[in-house]
Structure formats: structure tokens, C-alpha cells
């Protein structure tokens, strides 16, 4: 059972580790989350942004870029 006190204790224990061990722990936790294939639901802000982008697309369905165009634009911006 997860309790707030346990969270504080675990965080304190993690902070007491050397930085290299803290990084390894964070990576191990992240890998476990990825392996679980859990996807958190989008936040309210993310939902609003997705809705805004969808509405913008519906209003201008031909205003799109291919993957190749996007890739080229990113590569060009990185060269500057």
C-alpha cells in the first residue's frame, strides 16, 4: 500500500544515494514504466491543445506537410 510517508522515505533514501546511483535508479524506474506499457491520460491542458489543433486542421485540411518536409525543415533549423 502506497502512503505519503512511504513516498517521503523513498525520496529521502534516493536523495541519499550518490548521483550516479540516483541516475541509474531513475533510468530503472523509467524503463519499468515503459515496459508496463502504461499510458497516462492526457492532462486537461493537453486535451485542450489537441482539440485546438484538430479544429485548426478541420478548418484548413490542406495545410499539411509531409514527413519528408518536416524532417527537412528540422534539419535546416539545426544547421543554423
TrEMBL record:
Pfam families: Unstab_antitox (PF09720). This is Addiction module component. The lineage of its organism: Bacteria, Pseudomonadati, Pseudomonadota, Betaproteobacteria, Burkholderiales.
Amino acid at each position: 500500500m502506497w502512503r505519503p510517508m512511504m513516498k517521503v522515505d523513498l525520496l529521502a533514501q534516493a536523495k541519499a544515494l550518490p548521483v550516479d546511483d540516483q541516475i541509474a535508479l531513475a533510468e530503472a524506474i523509467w524503463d519499468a514504466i515503459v515496459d508496463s506499457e502504461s499510458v497516462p491520460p492526457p492532462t486537461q491542458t493537453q486535451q485542450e491543445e489537441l482539440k485546438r489543433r484538430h479544429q485548426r486542421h478541420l478548418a484548413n485540411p490542406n495545410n499539411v506537410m509531409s514527413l519528408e518536409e518536416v524532417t527537412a525543415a528540422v534539419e535546416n533549423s539545426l544547421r543554423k
